[in-house]
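Task: sequence in, structure out. Protein: DUF4320 family protein.
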Amino acid sequence: MLHKFRDNQGSAAPEIAVGFLVFMMFLVLAVTFLPQYVRKQELDTAATEIARYIEIKGVVNDDVYYYVEEIKDVINMDFNCSIDADYYGSSRKIQLEKKFKVTLSYDSKFGIGGVISVPLPIKGHAYGVSEKYIK
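Result:
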């Protein structure tokens, strides 16, 4: 019985070393991917703010694009903005209760240790309904 315990001497060192390496690998992955997740959340929030602005205004004009530029400066991201809506006539106005979609896209890159750099497209979406009646 005593020989079983004496044969296992020193076996904890390799287990701890492997466990430490696995822990460090997860830590590197977390540090690499968490900023991308934060950027995704920022894009979703920005898309929601832009959609709310359009809901109140009821029109997609220069004021909306100035607001988009302000948001770009605030969150420090140069994203592309597209607004898909069913416009009223030939104008850029959105009739009351008509739905629209705001899509923000950003081309991000993530790298591991400066060795690998992989492009990662990130998109943020928001939907809205116009609150403005167009006569």
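Residues 12-57 form the longest helix (46 residues).
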